[in-house]
Task: structure prediction
Amino acid sequence: MKITELKSCFGTVKPEAGCDEAGRGCLSGPVFAAAVILPDSFEHSVLNDSKQLTEKQRKELRKIIENEAIAWSVASVDNKEIDRINILNASILAMHKALSGLKVQPEFIIVDGNRFKQYGNIAHKTIIKGDEKYKSIAAASILAKTHRDEFMEKIAKIHPQYGWEQNKGYPTKKHRFAIARYGTTPFHRLSYKLLDTQTEIKFQTDN
Result:
């Protein structure tokens, strides 16, 4: 998707903040969320949903977004809170925390996906695949993703056997096999299905 296909804003109420999260499907680590208010003039040739970009592109865009945004904020909710309130509520809480961290209060909020809870008295709109349609949501997806990746790379040094520097906590075969072999860490989401049947069978066979 080219930048010309991304819209600057949803409506006429300004300032408008875009929100997105990263890490909902992970077996370990926090869920991160970002809120971004961009100037209408903001453009970049490769701005898109973070999942469509390379790691290098995301890192480059992160610097540009953080330098040129009217306001931006990143927040997280840890795995223990995810286990307590579930990942949907934790994702929305992280987005609310990110919105609270903005130095400029938005008058309207657009959110990637189809679920959100009212934030204060500010009107909002949920947009399925919003990170492929609106610049501010795409920017939020990039900040949430890069900040979360950075966190996972740091804790990978504490627990190197799980490969978090590469899989970032997602349910890869290596990650599941490491859980079967070494057990869980204080960063794992215990409310998630951490092992699948094939992993357990293979682990038992190898041992």
